């Protein structure tokens, strides 16, 4: 049977298949508003799968989750398991409001904990529409973390809520300062975000039991991680999808 994990975010929808060995394959990033594009991938993945498919879905986007649910109901996979909140994710927690918190944060923590093991504290920095910095104790307990504005959201907000500022898409080539509006924006958005993340990481280090391991994930991780930590930064793509695999398709859990 085909096994699929799906991550519904605020700016992208990602699917990935598990191989026969249970390992996660390459993910596919799909448009949020184009079920026709979803159908192309569905047909490609299912054309030689007579046993159908089992799905596990994490979502922080209720309207899109309803659209995907309709899409799946039309195609009748064997089973679908939905993870709507952090409370449903099998990770040790010392947080408040897990029944309303995002499942994506908890899945990133679960995957990082499996990847790194216990014995040393860790931080998970997820760089998407929002940037989150998650704390994991040496015993593997998720303590919550910090949520900040993501790189693209910062740029779009400055463009949308001002009369004359243009939309920019800065990266590590952004200057330190600019003589005109656009390079000034690029400097402020990119290096301001880098500084904010660096400060958030530094503040977690002050009260953890040891210097934490740091794992980066998310669409902007490849841009921000080297700028914050240098070339040795550990970037793990698709950490949320990895967490879904552990939660939904681990032999110790029934789907």
TrEMBL record:
Its cofactor is NH4(+); K(+). It catalyses: (R)-pantothenate + ATP = (R)-4'-phosphopantothenate + ADP + H(+). GO terms for cellular component: cytoplasm. It holds the Pfam family Pan_kinase. One of its GO terms (molecular function) is ATP binding. Keywords: ATP-binding, Coenzyme A biosynthesis, Cytoplasm, Kinase, Nucleotide-binding, Potassium, Transferase. The keyword Lyase does not apply. GO terms for biological process: coenzyme A biosynthetic process. It is found in: Cytoplasm. The keyword ATP-binding applies. Catalyzes the phosphorylation of pantothenate (Pan), the first step in CoA biosynthesis. Belongs to the type III pantothenate kinase family. HAMAP family: Pantothen_kinase_3. This is Type III pantothenate kinase.
């Amino acid at each position: 049977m085909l096994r699929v994990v799906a991550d519904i975010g605020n700016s992208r929808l990602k699917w990935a298949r598990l191989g026969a060995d249970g390992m996660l394959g390459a993910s596919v990033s799909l448009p949020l508003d184009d079920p026709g594009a979803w159908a192309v991938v569905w047909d490609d993945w299912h054309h030689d799968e007579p046993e159908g498919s089992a799905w596990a879905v994490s979502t922080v986007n209720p309207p899109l989750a309803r659209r995907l649910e309709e899409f799946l109901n039309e195609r009748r996979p064997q089973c679908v398991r939905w993870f709507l909140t952090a409370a449903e994710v099998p990770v040790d927690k010392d947080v408040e409001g897990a029944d309303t918190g995002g499942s994506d944060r908890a899945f990133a923590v679960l995957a990082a904990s499996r990847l790194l093991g216990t014995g040393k504290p860790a931080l998970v920095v997820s760089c998407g529409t929002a940037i989150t910095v998650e704390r994991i104790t040496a015993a593997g307990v998720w303590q919550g973390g910090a949520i900040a504005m993501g790189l693209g959201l910062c740029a779009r907000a400055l463009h949308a809520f001002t009369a004359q500022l243009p939309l920019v898409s800065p990266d590590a080539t952004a200057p330190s300062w600019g003589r005109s509006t656009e390079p000034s924006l690029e400097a402020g958005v990119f290096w301001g975000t880098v500084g904010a993340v660096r400060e958030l990481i530094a503040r977690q280090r002050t009260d953890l039991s040891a210097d934490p391991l740091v794992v980066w994930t998310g669409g902007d991780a490849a841009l921000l991680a080297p700028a914050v930590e240098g070339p040795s930064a550990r970037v793990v793509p698709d950490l949320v999808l990895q967490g879904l695999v552990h939660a939904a398709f681990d032999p110790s859990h029934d789907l």
